[in-house]
Design a protein that fits this description.
The chain has a four-stranded antiparallel sheet. By secondary structure, the chain is of the alpha+beta class. The chain has six helices and four strands; from the N terminus they run βααβααββαα. It is 51% helix and 14% strand.
């Protein structure tokens, strides 16, 4: 498996993490990653109603901000949340953001088709 370009832990900046987490689709991806652990990006994004190229863009933004870690395996990309790095650099941030997302996710569906 090879890795793609992503920031070292000490290069992760709060403003970039917050910018990456500010998008509802990316926040939904991060929540799914937190729940699932490591998985292939096409599996994680399968239930999200966005075009594949848009999904790839969101994964790139998360990776470049230091929110996720990506490994290339053949033609697939294995993605995981950089929870340990983020918790070390910004204690409580990820738990707060994901907790707020979970509370609002119970009443709305972000990034998926709404039921009639």
């Amino acid at each position: 498996m090879r890795e793609v370009s992503q920031p070292a832990t000490e290069a992760i900046r709060l403003v970039e993490v917050l910018r990456a987490l500010a998008d509802p689709v990316r926040l939904d991806l991060v929540q799914r990653l937190d729940r699932m652990g490591e998985d292939f990006c096409n599996a994680i994004g399968a239930e999200i109603d966005v075009h594949q190229t848009t999904l790839s863009h969101h994964y790139r933004v998360l990776r470049e901000a230091g929110v996720t870690w990506t490994k290339v395996q053949g033609r697939s990309r294995l993605v995981r949340l950089r929870r340990e790095d983020l918790d070390e650099l910004f204690p409580g941030l990820l738990d707060s953001v994901l907790g707020a997302q979970r509370r609002t996710h119970d009443t709305t569906t972000i990034g998926t088709a709404e039921a009639p």
